[in-house]
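DNA-3-methyladenine glycosylase 2 family protein, pasting as requested.
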Amino acid sequence: MRRTLAVLAKGAYDPAHHVAPDGAVWRASRMPEGPVTYRVSSVAHEIHVAAWGPGAEALTTEAPILLGADDDWTGFEPRVPLVARAHQRHPGLRFPCQRRVLEVLVPAIVEQRVPSVDAFASWRRLLRTHGEAAPGPTPRPMSVPLSAEQWRMLPSWAWHRAGVDPGRSRTVVRVAERAAALERLVGRSYAEITTALRSLPGVGIWTAAEVTLRLGDPDAVSVGDYNLAKDVGTAFDGTPVDDARMLEILEPWRGHRGRVVRLLYADGALRRPRRGPRITRMDHRTR
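Structure tokens follow.
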């Protein structure tokens, strides 16, 4: 349960995501009916969901899909010992289906072209400063992701203070202006969703994959990621590779390529030694 929902979190201190000491996962979200806080826990091999706020009823109705009830493993075969071992150790790992496109698209844009640690810090500043308090008895202060209107209305200085450069902030504003059309993508094929997302200025193949993965696509591969191809290459070939070679490696699992990646990350098989130059970090608040 925790690993399934972890893909929706943006760092250990995400104001919209918290894992409590008892193992329960708390999340804040925004349904069409309004803000919601929900708690997901596992008790005696059963999943329990409690929710608070105007969006509580809609969230509890959606909960099975959100937790991966519709995740289809048809056609998946481990094929090699590396994947078989990961599958055996993590048989319950599912792809969650977060059905609110803007809620996963905005943080993906914030992560573009910067180290994850910096993107997570920006997301944290934006939600803590401009997001409303999550409803319900949260175990720590939590914030609800902003609405499309709130994203559109954020002034330039707010983005600057959060460490988000003008290019990424303009992209967020543009997609927020198309929020209604984006939400209508839910239910379409992942290929259609990807095409629609990539038609938006500032949204490329990496960002689209980061979104469809969180909409439940088990074949989503984040081509263009700074570490992914190197990690996959090291696990399978013994050496870092480029995106083209990564896709060759994953081709036998087409339809489940993203699932293979998630299983291997969960199993620790894609943690290569970090050596050599690192991506350049830039604090946009000082520019």
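Note for the archive: The domain at 71-214 is CATH 1.10.340.30 (Endonuclease III; domain 1).
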